[in-house]
Amino acid sequence: MAHSPVILLGLQLLNAIFIGILGGIGMLYFQDLMPGQAGSATTLYTNTSRVGWIIAGSVAGIVAEIWNYHAVFWFCDGDDYRHSVLLTAD
Asked: Is the C or the N end of the chain the one with fewer CB within 10 Å?
């Protein structure tokens, strides 16, 4: 836990850099999928990210309402495992 505003500010800066790098990688991936249409690819990436946030927030709220907030993390763990199995299956 950060006990000082200076530490918290430093951690937020590192978090912002991390999120910026991940966002940039995702955007570049979409632009590689749509060569010559950088604007459309960026818009598609931005809009699908926002839709994903809305759906994720709704699902997290439903899971937390039915069970509890710890169940949200277990639900995400199970979903991640399921997707990793599906992606590696031949």
From this structure: C
**For 2-15, what is each residue's pLDDT tens digit?**
789 999 999 999 99
d(CA 33, CA 27): 10
On whether the pTM is more than 0.90, the answer is no
In tens, the pLDDT along 15-63 reads: 999 999 998 999 999 999 999 999 999 999 999 999 999 999 999 999 9
The tokens of 7 are what? 């530490």
> Long-range contacts: 79-83, Cβ < 8 Å, 24+?
none
**How many angstroms separate the CA atoms of 73 and 89, rounded?**
24
Distance of CA 55 to the CA centre of its chain: 11
In angstroms, what is the C-alpha Rg of the chain?
Answer: 17
Range of the domain at 57: 5-88
- Which tokens belong to 33? 């999928």
